[in-house]
Structures are given as structure tokens and as C-alpha cells.
Design goal:
Helix content of chain A: under 10%
Structural class of chain B: mainly beta
Strand content of chain A: over 45%
Oligomer: heterodimer
Order of helices and strands of chain A: EEEEEEEEEEEE
Radius of gyration of chain A: 14 Å
Number of helices of chain B: 0
Strand content of chain B: over 45%
Radius of gyration of chain B: 13 Å
Number of helices of chain A: 0
Shape of chain B: globular
Number of strands of chain A: 12
Helix content of chain B: under 10%
Largest interface: A-B, 25 and 31 residues
Largest sheet of chain B: 7 strands, mixed
Largest sheet of chain A: 6 strands, mixed
Order of helices and strands of chain B: EEEEEEEEEEE
Shape of chain A: globular
Structural class of chain A: mainly beta
Distance between the termini of chain A: 41 Å
Chain lengths: 115, 115
């Protein structure tokens, strides 16, 4: 079985400061990892993904994520937060051995960026 | 915008009724997945269709069923609605031929309320 944990329900950060949203995963085989963002009353918007290769993945809107195989983590980061980054963030995983294309999502982390 | 459209955007149904939700996938995408997102939770996988065949199903009862049409659009049908079926239903499309590392693109969702 595959699973994702997002240990923080909410992350608060001041505008201009760096932000980190944490994610750890459990999966059979090689992990394919994704970050999505959800704004109020909207669907999920793709930010970035890790397949293989460089452990630091760059995505949309200045976001990046760091893959750490030994810690089974895939934390989302941004060097300088904007108020407009305030939203709900989801980490998701697929495993290469599961035979399923379904994404397994974490419970989400609400990011609040204060002006 | 992702190019994935869902209809209707909101729906109110009575317990015991049946509902059909619709999804038009992004142009060129042959795989459609459906997810249920209850309030305050991450999306949960319902099922997936690839080239008109169901090729994966999550832990949902048989009263959740679906279809995919030759143009790759899709329907989600739920029979005998229960109060716990109240949720945001998300449709996601992707190009299944490219494997498990392909990101999915989500529609804006259908908010279903069962009273």
C-alpha cells in the first residue's frame, strides 16, 4: 500500500520569508511524487513532480521540492513567500510496483502567508 | 486553466436519489480518474478509465460507477445517495500511455450536497 503524510495542518509564514511544507511517503518500488495546490472552491493545480534524477525539482510559481530517498521525504519549498501563495497544498505519490495509476494524496497543509 | 471541465459545479440531492456527474478531459488525454474530496481531507481515488475501460478502482462501493466515452469524456454515477457522499468530486485527465510518472490535470470539481 502507498501512503502520504503531511504532518502540519497549517504553516504560517511572513511574506518575503522562505517557506517549507513537509511531506513524507511510503510506497512500493520507485516513487513518483507530485505537489498540487488548491485555491478556495477550485480544483487541484499541478505544481511540480519528481520522477528520477536531480533531487531538487523546480516547478511553477517559484516553488521547488527536495526529494530525500533515505528520509522518504519530498518537502515543498519557496525562497520568498507571497501573500498570493496562501492556499491548500497537497503532496501525492504513485509507486512503480503498485500497478495502479491512482494518486494517493496526503491530508493537505494550509499555507497562510501574512503581509 | 487545465482544459478539464466538469458539470455541474454545484448540485443538491436528496438521500436515496441518483446523480450523474460529467467530465470533459483535456484535449488529447485518454485517461480519466475520479476522486472524492470530503471537507478537510485530501482527495480519495474512486476509479480510473483508460481508453473506455476501467483500469483501477479505489475502496468505494459498487453504487459508484462510471463510463468513458469514445471522445474520452467521462461520467460518474452514484446510486442510492447517502449523506456521507456529500463532497467535492474531482475529475482528472492525463495521457496514460506515458506511464506512472505522468501528472494528472484536474477540473474545478462538482460540489455535491446530499440532504
Amino acid at each position: 500500500a502507498q501512503s502520504v503524510a503531511q504532518p502540519e495542518d497549517q504553516v504560517n509564514v511572513a511574506e518575503g520569508n522562505p517557506l517549507t511544507v513537509k511531506c513524507t511517503y511510503s510506497v512500493s518500488g520507485n516513487p513518483y511524487l507530485f505537489w498540487y495546490v488548491q485555491y478556495p472552491n477550485r480544483g487541484l493545480q499541478f505544481l511540480l513532480k519528481y520522477i528520477t534524477g536531480d533531487n531538487l525539482v523546480k516547478g511553477s510559481y517559484g516553488f521547488e521540492a527536495e526529494f530525500n530517498k533515505s528520509q522518504t521525504s519530498f518537502h515543498l519549498k519557496k525562497p520568498s513567500a507571497l501573500v498570493s501563495d496562501s492556499a491548500l497544498y497537497f503532496c501525492a505519490v504513485r509507486g512503480s510496483f503498485t500497478g495502479r495509476r491512482a494518486l494517493t494524496f496526503g491530508s493537505g497543509t494550509r499555507l497562510q502567508v501574512q503581509p | 486553466e487545465t482544459g478539464v471541465t466538469q458539470s455541474p459545479t454545484h448540485l443538491i440531492k436528496t438521500r436515496g436519489q441518483q446523480v450523474t456527474l460529467r467530465c470533459s478531459s483535456q484535449s488529447g488525454h485518454n485517461t480519466v480518474s475520479w476522486y472524492q474530496q470530503a471537507l478537510g481531507q485530501g482527495p480519495q481515488f474512486i476509479f480510473q478509465y483508460y481508453r473506455e475501460e476501467e483500469n483501477g478502482r479505489g475502496n468505494f462501493p459498487p453504487r459508484f460507477s462510471g463510463l468513458q466515452f469514445p471522445n474520452y469524456s467521462s461520467e460518474l454515477n452514484v446510486n442510492a445517495l447517502e449523506l456521507d457522499d456529500s463532497a467535492l468530486y474531482l475529475c482528472a485527465s492525463s495521457l496514460g500511455d506515458r506511464g506512472l510518472n505522468t501528472e494528472a490535470f484536474f477540473g474545478q470539481g462538482t460540489r455535491l450536497t446530499v440532504v
